[in-house]
Design a protein that fits this description.
single chain; alpha+beta; globular; 116 residues
Length: 116
Amino acid sequence: WSASCKKVFEKCILRLTASAGFPLSWTKNPKWRLFCDKFVSGAPTISRKVLTKRILTEVVEEFRAEVWEKVSKKEATIQSDGWTRVNNHHLVAFMITANRKVHTVEVHNTTKERSD
């Protein structure tokens, strides 16, 4: 596996994890590892820590740069929305709409912040 191929694989695993709603630990699942050994020879093993600390950070930075490039010098509306997830985490999302397309800029977890 070349370094660039490994990066693409890692980003695909991150996107698969997010889009399917998989728990972050699924990449260590023995059945997944057997699948990789059989069908994706030499696939890198990705830990939960690497997935969240390095790969997610890289993808978020790329995504933000892409969004800012798309909305730069365009008329836009900034909006926010808050909600509580099933696990009682309170989230606030900040979005920007330009050219009739909504882009998420940031989602902030406010669960531990005090409400007055």
